[in-house]
């Protein structure tokens, strides 16, 4: 009887599958661009990164809008997925091309998009602050 119970517990543990879809609740809302960081040229227009610059991304549970000073520049759908235990990816408009799937992270009120590979030390990062 103990062996049967042990077998059932073991089978239950092996059948558990970790959900690879992250929760989008933290992503939902309005985010304003705050700048990029990389080994690249410094911005020529510092007003482009100040609060109130108007470069906004709005996320709902499944859609997004990119706005520039209240003018819609692009909209569509998005999906997120967990890449591994430390990285999450976002895919816009079901574009499955490898160079279209971007990594992202949320740390407090800061959303960071960072390239198509999770550990590119010199890759650009775009930072947004939640409004």
Which strand order spans the largest sheet, edge to edge or round the barrel?
Answer: 1-2-3-4-5-6-7-8
CATH topology: Lipocalin
User: What share of the residues lie within helices?
Assistant: 10-25%
Gyration radius, to the nearest Å? 19 Å
The whole-number mean of residue pLDDT values reads: 79
Q: Tally the structural domains.
A: 1
User: What order do the SSEs take from the amino end to the carboxyl end, as H and E?
Assistant: HEEEEEEEE
Number of H/I helices: 1
**Low-confidence runs of at least 5 consecutive residues:** 4-8, 17-21
What is the CATH class designation? Mainly Beta
CATH architecture: Beta Barrel
Which geometry do the CA atoms define?
globular
Overall SS class: mainly beta
Largest sheet: 8 strands, antiparallel, barrel
Give the distance, in angstroms, between the N- and C-terminal Cα atoms: 58 Å
Share of residues in strands: 35-45%
* DSSP, total strands: 8
Protein name: Lipocalin-like domain-containing protein
Organism: Mucilaginibacter rubeus
Salient structural properties:
131 residues, mainly beta, Lipocalin, 8-stranded antiparallel β-barrel, Lipocalin-like domain-containing protein
In short:
The protein has 131 residues and is mainly β.
Describe this structure as you would to a colleague.
- By secondary structure, this protein is mainly β.
- The chain has a single domain, classed as Lipocalin (Beta Barrel).
- Helix content is 11%, strand content 40%.
- The protein has one helix and eight strands, in the order H-E-E-E-E-E-E-E-E.
- An eight-stranded antiparallel barrel has the order 1-2-3-4-5-6-7-8.
- Strand 2 and strand 3 form a beta hairpin.
- The longest helix has 14 residues, at 2-15.
- It is globular.
- This is Lipocalin-like domain-containing protein.
């Amino acid at each position: 009887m103990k062996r049967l119970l042990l077998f059932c517990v073991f089978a239950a543990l092996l059948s558990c599958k970790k959900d690879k879809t992250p929760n989008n609740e933290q992503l939902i809302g309005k985010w304003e661009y705050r700048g990029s960081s990389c080994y690249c040229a410094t911005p020529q227009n510092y007003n482009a990164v100040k609060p109130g610059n108007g470069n906004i991304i709005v996320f709902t549970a499944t859609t997004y809008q990119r706005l520039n000073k209240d003018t819609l520049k692009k909209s569509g759908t998005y999906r997120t997925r967990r890449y591994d235990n430390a990285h999450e990816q976002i895919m816009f408009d079901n574009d499955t091309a490898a160079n279209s799937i971007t990594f992202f992270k949320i740390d407090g009120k800061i959303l960071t998009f960072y390239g198509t590979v999770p550990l590119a030390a010199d890759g650009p990062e775009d930072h947004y602050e939640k409004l």
